[in-house]
Design a protein that fits this description.
Elements: E1 2-7, H1 12-24, H2 35-39, H3 43-51, E2 53-60, E3 63-72, E4 78-85, H4 91-94, H5 98-109
Antiparallel strand pairs: 1-2, 2-3, 3-4
Length: 119
């Protein structure tokens, strides 16, 4: 069973794990920071990174199997959505509606359209 939940700033370490996994599994230049840079961030920077977005995770048996984030601009307007699904998971999870559930939860929690674009 997949559980969808929002990650609070108090659980910033989950955001760090997700981001580092995404950076480690992507070609250089894919994201605004590199794995080497992010590994060196202090805890406070990670707390800020999580607080700058609404981070929603999909979990199965206590492990994160996907995530979605709504990133906001300085005026607190939705800027973009980021999705990381399919890492650390099986094909059954990737095909089981996890991405749709994450997208809808991000939209519902932020009063935005459920047709958020993938970036």
């Amino acid at each position: 069973m997949i559980t969808i939940r929002t990650v609070s700033v108090e659980h910033w370490h989950i955001g760090r794990e997700i981001r580092l996994a995404a950076l480690a599994g992507s070609p250089p230049g894919t994201f605004g920071s590199t794995l080497e840079e992010a590994v060196a961030w202090p805890d406070q920077r990670w707390r800020q990174w999580v607080s700058d977005r609404v981070l929603v995770v999909a979990e199965r048996a206590g492990s994160v199997v996907g995530s979605a984030a709504l990133v906001r601009d300085a005026d607190d307007r939705p800027m973009r959505t980021d999705y990381e699904t399919g890492w650390n998971t099986s094909c059954r999870t990737r095909a089981g509606g996890t991405a749709t559930a994450l997208r809808l939860d991000v939209a519902r929690n932020n009063n935005t359209s459920s047709t958020l674009s993938h970036t």
